Amino acid sequence: xxxxxxxxxxxxxxxxxxxxxxxxxxxxxxxxxxxxxxxxxxxxxxxxxxxxxxxxxxxxxxxxxxxxxxxxxxxxxxxxxxxxxxxxxxxxxxxxxxxxxxxxxxxxxxxxxxxxxxxxxxxxxxxxxxxxxxxxxxxxxxxxxxxxxxxxxxxxxxxxxxxxxxxxxxxxxxxxxxxxxxxxxxxxxxxxxxxxxxxxxxxxxxxxxxxxxxxxxxxxxxxxxxxxxxxxxxxxxxxxxxxxxxxxxxx
Length: 251
Hints:
This protein is an alpha/beta fold. The chain has eight helices and seven strands, in the order E-H-E-H-E-H-E-H-E-H-E-H-H-H-E. Strands 3-2-1-4-5-6-7 form a seven-stranded parallel sheet, sandwiched between helices. The longest helix has 29 residues, at 100-128.
């Protein structure tokens, strides 16, 4: 497949984990990628490998996100695909024990940052008047109840509905907005979480058996769904959230 030839994609949080896998897959599909991330070393290294571009970006700073969109247009001449991927899960604690600092930090990165991305990508798409596509990275915990990560679940649920709302708003411009909701994905961060558990083997077994389809998906599995949504094969798909979860949300 080379379904994204001559397309330009901007990916926030694109230097590692899921964002890195998305950048790699979109490049395989023919796109030119721009990686927006705080991690300058990893971002530059990946951009060089993929023959793309890197811009240091703090998604909690609206001006920084706006600059990333402008940089993309400066380097590639246009923006076709925006992947709103940057995010954190924050500290785990029951709601009544959660700190206000953790709440505000997660909200700032996951929700405010995502809104800034939507705002400036949509502004560019409307200006170009050639359509465009946005894929928001959400989570299955935005679709079901999940204990001990209240700000994370709140931000992902909010972004799912923001996906729907912006899809309705901007369909008239031929701009598509969708979301991908993964289950737990085997990234370096998750592997570290497993290794740090009191019983790593038990934790891994739990993750491998929590979905009807056994096992832990890799980041490449999620990236494949993003590539589909970014392509013209999905040209009449907008406003949906695809759960890449091995059937978890079907239970």
